[in-house]
Amino acid sequence: MAGDVTLSRGQWSTQFGFILAAAGSAVGLGNIWKFPYITGVYGGGAFVLVYLGCVLAVGLPLMIAELIIGRRAQQNPVGAFQKLHKPGSQWQIAGWLGVASGFIILSFYSVVAGWAIAYLFKSIVGFSGTSAEIQGQFGNLIGNAWASIGWHTLFMAMTIGIVLGGVRKGIERWAKILMPALIILLLGLACYGLFTTDGGAQALTFLFEPDFSKLSAEGFLSALGHAFFTLSLGMGAMITYGSYMDRKAHIIRDAVVISLLDTVIALLAGVAIFSLVFAYGLEPSQGPGLIFQTLPVLFADIGPWVSVPFFVLLSFAALSSSISLLEVVVSYFIDKRGWGRAKATIIMGFLIYLLGLLCATASITVPFRGKSQGFLDIFDFITTNYMLPIGGLLTCLFLAWIVNEKVIKEEFGSSGNLYKLTMFTLRFITPIAVLMVLLHGLEWLPFMDYVN
Ligand code: TRP
């Protein structure tokens, strides 16, 4: 029966299982691919420090807000906003935006994740050739629509396969396999970089010694935007995962653990990658090609015993995130439309897969913001710069100003100073910070120079 299926909803089997699943959602391409490359581009330590501040001031409070909304409502994002306000409430638009964001993000996320799997196979075979040839392989992969589509198909099939299994037997079970494996691989790679190459010390200096002269306003806003993306915030993923939480779970503690795990894993990835980059005397500021173009050149020299674990790590991280993106969409169709899990997963997964075909075909371009661009870049731009910040802004305004305070206190588990601090942050600091990211995405911030 539509709308009244709360009793048959899934629930995490253990609190630890929830933490691994939520950390699995957070830890993804954002940590292993994006964080190191933007840190490189924006100059290292100072950027890292600002990013840590953003996780504390914006990310953590917003994660708490999403988990509270989800657990209290026991609903998908659309239902959750209605349930905590009133049926038919216009706040459901925030939930809709989340479901739509999940749909669009997964369509391109799966293509990039497909490249990660492609590189896993390439590293088993081994990278060889001149550095120009190795770097050129990336362009060949992106430019070859059939190859990109093939890997995208494989990755979407895995994502759908896991989500079909449901909350416990699919998402949680796989998170319990993927996350520990990921952490072990990453610790191994970080130790390798730190202790056996000549680049370790330089990598630590680069990451942890702030040089504020290198920090630009642009870097500041990117740090804020990234804090959002990396913690899977702004589209109801944490509302959905929170809705499967047990009443006894401790939301604040769990949010701290998840954010901490996500941050530590991003930093470890930075240590692993920059140690190699510096050991080979390369520049850290390579941009998006850092792990698909720069690293393979080094891997050709080091060998598959480092590159295979690296790309396994990347693929695992991507998979445990993509399942959360699909789950948001699926939970809506299960809760609100009364669909069975199998029907919702297969139909929605397939539609997302179709949209992904557009992203995988780089030769299809349309004019966007003054130049001709592929769908992958356009979708990435629209979701990261508009949809997630708007979703995050609405979520924190909703919790901080609309939801009954008694409800929040109950979910929070206390009304002491920590509660007051969190509420103050959610009422004033988080919305202003998110608004700035949004205005920056729209290129409307008065004090920035936007060159077009
Ligand atoms: N956090 C993931 C990463 O860092 C991506 C992701 C998964 C995500 N679910 C999300 C981002 C929900 C925003 C919203 O790669």
Bound molecules: tryptophan
Whole-angstrom Rg? 21 Å
> Uncertain runs with pLDDT below 50, 5 residues or more?
1-7
**With helices defined by DSSP (H or I, 4 residues minimum), what is the helix count?**
18
Going by CATH, the architecture would be Up-down Bundle
The CATH superfamily bears the name Amino acid/polyamine transporter I
Tell me what portion of residues adopts beta-strand conformation.
Answer: under 5%
Structural class designation: mainly alpha
Q: How widely separated are the two ends?
A: 52 Å
Topology-level CATH name: Amino acid/polyamine transporter I
Shape: globular
- The first-level CATH class name: Mainly Alpha
- Main sheet specs: 2 strands, antiparallel
> What is the spatial order of strands in the main beta sheet?
1-2
Number of strands: 2
Topology:
Layout: H1 15-26, H2 29-41, H3 45-73, H4 77-84, H5 92-125, H6 131-143, H7 145-164, H8 166-196, H9 200-208, H10 217-230, H11 237-242, H12 251-279, H13 290-302, H14 304-337, H15 341-360, E1 365-368, E2 371-374, H16 375-402, H17 405-412, H18 417-441
Helix pairs in contact: 1-8, 1-12, 1-14, 2-10, 2-12, 3-4, 3-9, 3-10, 3-12, 3-16, 3-18, 4-5, 5-7, 5-14, 5-15, 5-16, 6-13, 7-8, 7-14, 7-15, 8-9, 8-12, 8-14, 9-12, 10-18, 13-14, 14-15, 15-16, 16-18
The protein binds tryptophan.
